[in-house]
Amino acid sequence: MAELRASQIESIVVSALEEDLGQGDVTTEALIPSDLEAKASILIKADGVLAGIEVAEIVFHQVDSSLRFEKLAQDGMRVLPGDTIAVVYGKAASILKAERVALNFLQHLSGIATATAEYAGAVSGTRARILDTRKTTPGLRLLEKYAVRMGGGQNHRYNLGDGVLIKDNHLAVLRGGGVGLGEAVKKARENAPLDLRIEVEVETVEQVREALDAGADIILLDNMTTTDMHHVVELVKGRTLTEASGGITLDNVRAVAETGVDFISIGALTHSAKALDISLGLEFD
C-alpha cells in the first residue's frame, strides 16, 4: 500500500484468517480437487471509492503464496458497477478459502472511503477539512484511518498518546477538584509533552473565551448550532483552530463548513459506513 507497509497489516490479516480459517474450510476440502486451477475476478457492484486492494492481495498470498494477484485499480480511485478491480489466478481451493476475508476488508474499507468522499465533496470550496475520530472497529483502526485518507479526509488522533484532547468528562472530573476549563488547559500545557497541541471541547461561547484566554491550540465545538459556530469563528479571528463535531450529517455538513470552521470531525465515517458491494466470480478453463 502506498501509505502503509505490508508488515503493518499482516498481523491484522493473519488474525482475520485465523478467525475464519483456523479450523480449516471443510466444505472446500470435501468438494474441490486440490489441483483444480481457476481465475477469479473481483467485481464492483456499486458506485464508490476503492480502498483495501493491497490488503486483499495480502489475504490471498497469506492463504497461498503461489496465487497470482493482478491489480487493475488503485486505492483512492472512483469505481463503478461492472468494474473489475483485480484478477486472481491459481488453485480454486485457495481462492475460495481467501475469498470472504478479502472481500470483507475490501467492502468495509471501500465503504469508509466512499462515505468520506461524499462528505469531502459536500464541503468542497470551503476551508473546512473532514476528520475521522477514534470511533473505530477495535483492531482495525490503522486500516480504517487509511481508508478515510483514500476518500479525501484527514486523520484526527490515532490513539490517546497522539494529542491532548480535554473532553467534557475530563472537565467534569476536574471540576470536582475545583479546576475550571481555563486552568485545565494551562495544566495540560505544563504537564503534556511540548510538541503536542492542546485541544479542548466546549459547548458554549463563554467556554470558548476561557479556552482562548488559556491559549488552547484547537477548540472543539461540541453540538453547537451553526449560528453559534459563526459567532465563535468571528470571536476567534484565527487565533486558534476550530473543529466542529456532533450531529454532523450529509444534510448539514455544508452549512457547518460555511461557518468558517477549520475542521469537521465525523465518527460515522468509521463506525457507520455502509459496505461497498463487491463480489468475486470464478472461471475455469
Entry summary:
By secondary structure, the chain is α/β, with parallel strands linked by helices. The protein has helices spanning 6-21, 26-31, 53-63, 92-122, 141-150, 168-176, 181-191, 205-214, 226-236, 253-257, 268-271; strands spanning 37-44, 48-49, 68-71, 78-79, 84-91, 129-131, 164-166, 198-202, 218-222, 241-245, 263-265, 278-283.
Q: How would you describe what is shown here?
A:
This protein is of the alpha/beta class and 285 residues long. The protein has 2 domains: 6-120 and 273-283, Aldehyde Oxidoreductase, domain 3; 121-271, TIM Barrel, CATH 3.20.20. Helices cover 44% and strands 19% of the residues. It contains 11 helices and 12 strands. It has helices at 6-21, 26-31, 53-63, 92-122, 141-150, 168-176, 181-191, 205-214, 226-236, 253-257, 268-271; strands spanning 37-44, 48-49, 68-71, 78-79, 84-91, 129-131, 164-166, 198-202, 218-222, 241-245, 263-265, 278-283. A 6-stranded parallel sheet has the order 6-11-10-9-8-7. It has a 4-stranded antiparallel sheet with strand order 3-5-1-12, with helices on one face. Helix 8 (205-214) links the parallel strand 8 (198-202) and strand 9 (218-222). Helix 7 packs parallel to helix 8 and helix 8 runs parallel beside helix 9 (226-236). The longest helix is centred in the middle third of the chain and has 31 residues, at 92-122. The chain is elongated. The relative contact order is 0.16. The mean pLDDT is 95.
